[in-house]
């Protein structure tokens, strides 16, 4: 039995070890043409602050990857164009004729580093330079605008590589991270969350008016899923106290879109809310709220110590 088993095992081993392809392809790997790409190492700054365009910038660290560890790179041209989403129309580009050259990196801008064998470069492009390159002024820029920066790598063999040279894996996969295009959004940071003292007057409704003024506190809580949106602890700012009623489970919110305030949502009875800013300075934000049941009031919300209302609220 042992001899038989050993013989069978030996036969199987001989059979598998003798299996091989009938064709041995002779692939000339050394003759393959190789390209180049720019791996994204750090996205230091990829947004423009609407309220501080003068100090906003695109800042990146890139690594040149090629068969010679980045030494084939001659220049990297950086182009920019501006786009805006027009509701009901679609994307509008500036300039409509194409991209504008805003910066050119030279071979000397790439240098060795201590983390890899490839050459790297770090560079910045100011928001003002990008705005000027597309023929606009800071006054022309709006919140949610986007500046598209497209890179073109030129090597010493006369070849060029850009966003149309790579597939999705090379552009977006973490190892390659080489999109050759970086979209920089104009954002409007908002920091209105907090609990504030308020005073309300001119309160009226179809159910009757509320004479004089009332005071209290209002809490605005940031909505995590919607930047710039804040739920309000009481959409009537205490007006219903005149009726002996309470806000309950109503859901009203105030939204900050680059300083333009709006009110939305509804109360527990289904009435929807809106607001109109009357005036705003560092100390007082004054607005009129209104719901679809005809209730309204004029509210003055006081800023907190050390945290004035942002300039430009409207």
From TrEMBL:
Superkingdom to which the source organism belongs: Bacteria
Record's protein name: DUF1735 domain-containing protein
Species, as recorded: Algoriphagus limi
């Amino acid at each position: 039995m042992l001899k038989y088993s050993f013989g069978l095992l030996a036969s199987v081993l001989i059979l598998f070890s003798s299996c091989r392809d009938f064709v041995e392809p002779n692939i000339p790997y050394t003759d393959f043409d190789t390209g180049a790409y720019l791996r994204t190492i750090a996205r230091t700054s990829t947004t423009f602050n609407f309220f501080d365009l003068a100090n906003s910038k695109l800042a990146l660290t890139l690594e040149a990857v090629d068969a010679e560890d980045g030494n084939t790179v001659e220049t990297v041209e950086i182009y920019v164009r501006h786009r805006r989403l027009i509701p009901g129309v679609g994307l509008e580009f500036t300039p409509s004729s194409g991209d504008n050259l805003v910066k050119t990196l030279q071979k000397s801008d790439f240098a060795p580093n201590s983390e890899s064998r490839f050459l790297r470069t770090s560079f910045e492009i100011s928001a003002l330079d990008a705005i000027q390159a597309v023929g606009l002024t800071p006054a022309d820029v709006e919140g949610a605008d986007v500046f598209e920066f497209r890179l073109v790598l030129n090597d010493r063999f006369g070849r060029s590589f850009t966003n149309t040279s790579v597939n999705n894996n090379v552009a977006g996969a973490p190892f390659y991270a080489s999109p050759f295009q970086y979209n920089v959004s104009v954002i409007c940071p908002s920091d209105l969350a907090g609990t504030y003292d308020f005073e309300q007057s001119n309160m009226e409704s179809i159910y009757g008016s509320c004479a004089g003024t009332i005071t209290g506190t209002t809490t605005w809580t940031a909505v995590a899923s919607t930047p710039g949106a804040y739920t309000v602890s009481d959409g009537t700012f205490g007006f219903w106290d005149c009726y002996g009623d309470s806000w309950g489970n109503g859901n009203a919110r105030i939204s900050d879109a680059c300083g333009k305030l709006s009110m939305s949502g509804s109360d527990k009875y289904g009435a929807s809310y809106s607001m109109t800013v009357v005036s705003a300075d560092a100390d007082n934000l004054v607005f009129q709220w209104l719901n679809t049941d005809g209730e309204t009031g004029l509210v003055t919300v006081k800023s907190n110590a050390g945290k004035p209302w942002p300039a430009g609220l409207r």
